[in-house]
Amino acid sequence: MTPPRIVVTAGEPAGIGPELVARAAQCSVPASMVAIGDPSLLESGARAAGVPLTLVDDDGGAHEPGTLRVVPVTLEAASTPGRLDPANARYVLDTLDLACDGCLDGRYDAMVTAPVQKSVINDAGIGFSGHTEYLAARCGGAHPVMMLAAGALRVTLYSTHLPLRDVADALDADTLERVIRIVHADLADRFGIDAPRIGVCGLNPHAGEGGHLGREEIDIIAPVIRKLRDDGLSLTGPLPADTAFTGRVLAELDTVLAMYHDQGLPVIKYAGFGEVVNITLGLPIIRTSVDHGTALDLAGTGRASADSLMKAIHTAIELARQRCRR
Asked: Residue 81 and residue 225: Cα distance in Å, rounded?
């Protein structure tokens, strides 16, 4: 099997992304790895991390520790660690565009993203709600589903970056059915899981307490579960979120679908912060990312850990291999 080609974006230039990419370049990986970013920024990241780094043009060759193949994109403005500058917002999006388009046209088998700072992109006057939504639009309007994985624990999300007051209004049967079908298909196709077992959380405390704490479970979630069970999907729920993540329940499931961001993510980040990988389902490409933000307070200090980025890279490699095997 030909080693997969993995493309890595360096993320927010004022954050820890350039240092993490420089650290990741020191590791041996069974893939061809190329970074997209400003070469001078990557060199600065290597100096901050205290690691040697040789940058070369991307020739498609195998990765060699300490050497990084680069597709150069020039910063719009000089970058200082820890200091956000809206002038570089377009630079960040250009790196994402190149990586995503390269995956779409087959130059790369998967993309891995270092963290970006949503606020500074919006401060530049560019509407941006997150990597996941941006890449879905770039892929032609696919419906993205966020999954976070830490070992055997996988949490998927019905909704991602929504204010809490908007979550209930965003819950509808058609979208829930679409999300569950995407999760089921990608667990089978990308993870090689036959007959995936999906636990579906309720929206309200105690899964609505029989309608006394809300009717979303009765009116929306349970009917969708019944319909998809009739189609042969293995679904459990609606599950009260406060017991859905216990060992006994998780042992019977391949993923838990949470209804909103902070219903599911605190659990998995507690279980393995720094070891969690963000995986975007529902796209025609493979995309993984880190489980943390730009850590502006650590940028330039050399103290940032690349563990999550390395997990994301190895997960991208395995998913690319799984795609080749199917």
From this structure: 48
Alpha-carbon span 126 to 49, nearest angstrom: 31
What global pTM score does this model have? Answer: 0.92
Indicate if the alpha-carbon torsion angle 98, 102, 104, 110 is positive or negative. negative
Locate tokens 């993320």: which residue? 11
Instruction: Please tell me what DSSP assigns to residue 240.
Output: P
Q: Structure tokens of 116? A: 């970006």
Structure tokens at 170: 């965003």
Closest CA relative to residue 245, chosen from 264, 225, 221, 227? 264
Q: Which two tokens stand for residue 121?
A: 């992109």
> Tens digits of per-residue pLDDT, 160-203?
888 999 999 999 999 999 999 999 999 999 999 999 999 999 99
The domains located in the chain, with CATH, are 1-142+283-326 (3.40.718.10), 144-279 (3.40.718.10)
Residue 107: closest CA among 95, 120, 118, 98: 98
- 68: helix, coil or strand? strand
Q: How far apart are CA 130 and CA 163, in angstroms?
A: 13
Classified as helix, coil or strand, 297 is coil
Q: Which of 103, 72, 84, 36 is nearest to 297 (CA)?
A: 84
Length of the chain, please?
326
Residue 18, classified by CB atoms within 10 Å of its CB into exposed (0-12), middle (13-18) or buried (19+), is buried
- Considering all CA atoms of the chain, what is the largest pairwise distance in Å, rounded to the nearest integer? 63
Token pair, residue 234, equals 């293995």
CA distance 53 to 39: 11
